[in-house]
Amino acid sequence: MRKIVWFLLIAITMLGLVLRVYGINQYPVHLGHDEVSQLYDAISIAQTGKDIYGHRLPFMFDSVNDFKPPFYTYMTVIWYWLLGWQEVVIKITGLVFGTLLIPVVFFFTNELFKKTQVSLATSFITAISPFEIFFSRKSFENQAGIVFIFVGFTLLLRFVRDTTKKKLANIGMALLGIGMYTYFSHAILIPLLLTGFLFLNFKVAKKIPKTGWVVLVVLALPLYWNILTNEKSTNRGGAVFIAQDRVLGEKLNFTNSFLGKKIILFDYAFNRYLSQFNSNYLFGNGLDLTKQTYPDTGLLYLIQLPFILIGIYGLFKGTDRKNHSLFLIFILLVGMIPSGLTFEEYSPHRSLIAFSVLNIISAYGLNVIWKRRIVGVIVMLCLVLGLLSFTYFYTINYPTERSFDLHYPFKQVVILAWEKRDNYDQIIFDPKFGEDAPKIGTATHYYFGFYGHYLPAEMQKNLRYGLRDREVLFDKFSIRAIDWRQDSQLKKVLLIASPWSLPPIEEVKMTGKVISEIKFFNGKTAFFVVEL
Amino acid sequence: MLFPFIGFEIIKILPPNLNYQDGWILRFLFLFLGVLFLGFVYRLGGRLTALVLLISPVFIYLFSALNLLLIFTQKNNSSLFSDMGLTNGINIFRGQGIAMGANPMYIRLLLNKSYFLLVGMLHWLTEIGPAKLFGQFDGEGIWGPSGMGMFPKVFVIPMFLGLIKGLKTKRVYISLLIVLALTFPVAFLYPQAGYKFLVLAMPFWAIIISVGFQFLVGYGKIAVLFLAIGETLITFALGTYEAKVTNVTRPSWIEPIITEARVAGSKEVFVSDDLTDQLSVYLRWYEAETVNIIDSSSQIFRCTNDEAGIVIVGLRDLAIIKRNISNVGVAKTFYDARGQEVAFRMKPEICVK
Lengths: 532, 353
Description:
heterodimer; A: alpha+beta; B: alpha/beta; 2 domains; two-stranded antiparallel ribbon
């Protein structure tokens, strides 16, 4: 590659890095329950070799009964060893892989089309893409998997070009094998993609060395063994499968026929799959940064839309590298499947690879008309405007509108609880909270453990379930539902609860002393701190 | 080859209660279709076909689409520019920016009236996207089977081929332009779907599919047709299921109730208006126009067997009767498609005024 290309690629990667790292401790404004549970489990593994429930080096983390895949937590162990006990540790894996993706898509695209301009444009769009920035900053494991997939297939594509480079094929197969461990849906996605790749490059496929296959099988076997035999995996799969959808459940009850139910299920899943390609979702409100349908931010920039259409047209009409073009489309179509098969109407985090492919296609489309300078200027202006708009929504509206979903202000609650710990016999916290409607916060004991610098070894010993409604106990803390009639009789107890769990505050004041209020990001009262 | 399908699809999605405007649009639609059909069959000269194709949409667009848009926005008092949710959203997010010290010029640059156009455009593109065409056109089942798209699912393949491989042919690109022109008003109907506009474009989608069909190779054509017919047959086979899904929007269970009322003989018949929306339309359809409707102003009281008429009430009026009159019996209970109690014929001891 020419020096100027290297220079541009490094500059684009640096830009992507800045957009991902800048203000990482402020935005998002709070660690979500997935982040804090993985972080504290990682610390627990690093210090004791066990998760907080005492499972030694688990293949799957119980966490809050949502059974998390292992990759992200084990990666976080490394960062913890390097950086110690701090919030940013959980974000580093996401940041590293989110940034790595920028050069990785360059090489992947370059291997596909051998067009430097398209590859650079892909990198640039990836660097500033709203969904890439958002998920890189949100400690999300899927991106790591995508890096493995793209690097793996880049090496296999290189092997297609020159079948004497057998080492590359072996490494590619190994990376695909590792990629399966990063995210559960990748255990299905990667074999599907590999099958498509081999089908499209059938002649070369036969030349992949046996070592590569052996490595892939050796890596994949333990994973599949665990998935097929581990009850937790089945639970995890069942919990997120489309059959959990309420509307579908209702529809399935309308027929007793076994075949009818299967047809309805297929029909529903197919509809959901197709709706993942809705323009509203992709370009308008897919990131779901606000509580409104609109205004919001899409996963991709609106200016990409015409270029995606041109790109798809170009991929099919172009005569050179037809198989590679088809492979790209295949990744797009297969990449959307996980989102179409799960219970949420839209779950962009499950289909990130499909959006990454849309970035590549839009760059390809852009290349078709790039030579007209005016187009370039307009596109750049639109991208800058799009980036500004995303920044506005992400830094201003997202914290105000959605910080509740990140369990804001659990951190403040926990810090206050630890400060007051020595003054009371017990501290009771009811994680039922909400602005417009109540929900029960999860992973609360993880928040207490992490922000209280509570040693995981101690947590493993002391964590237990109580007899009260959803009660979890350790140290002086009881995390449970509050029954004011009973609890108001307690003495030397600090009670932290939201207005949803307490009677009107005047009544509370007759029995206890409200010593503080903890507020949501928008200033509304989230919790009262009551001394009994 | 696909013209029988086009006809089938149009008939399938015709709304049950065609009104004046609908009929008017359909007249234009069929006229336009006819011209196109002749154009294709007799291969009219390129210029002439192009002229017809270019002029016709202008008329369609001017006389039907814009007219419909006005009717829609007036009837439903809702459109893109009067959507309060969107207006409030923009104001709220601007306010949040000001509260956090953002530059007002910056806020205005990002959140301004052009946002309405952006939302409208995305809405339009979504409404003509694959999910509507091949997934679920109308979930309520008013415009077609609730689980079907505008076309059978498998037609996504010839549609794609038609758009990619046939785009440079006049048939496809002109059809596509017509689709875009006919459906464009949907942008201004946000957040509504605008089915009437989408239906207008259906024949032109079908032309694109037809062109794409030519590019299918080997057994591809047979396979696609087989699957399309299969899906349609399965949809019909799941009729009971469909009746349950569309229990409210297509109340097939109303027929036995009205039949019961119609064959009442010389006695006066009363039926509650809360059984379903637009009960009078169903009464007219089943030729039971002599039936009296019980509404909120009606008085229900006990009377003798001779005075009493045939009274069929819904859950609302049954509750009122039970509250006001003691020991009243139900002679017959009617059930909806989901097996829920929906109407009750009272014993002959009730009168309505």
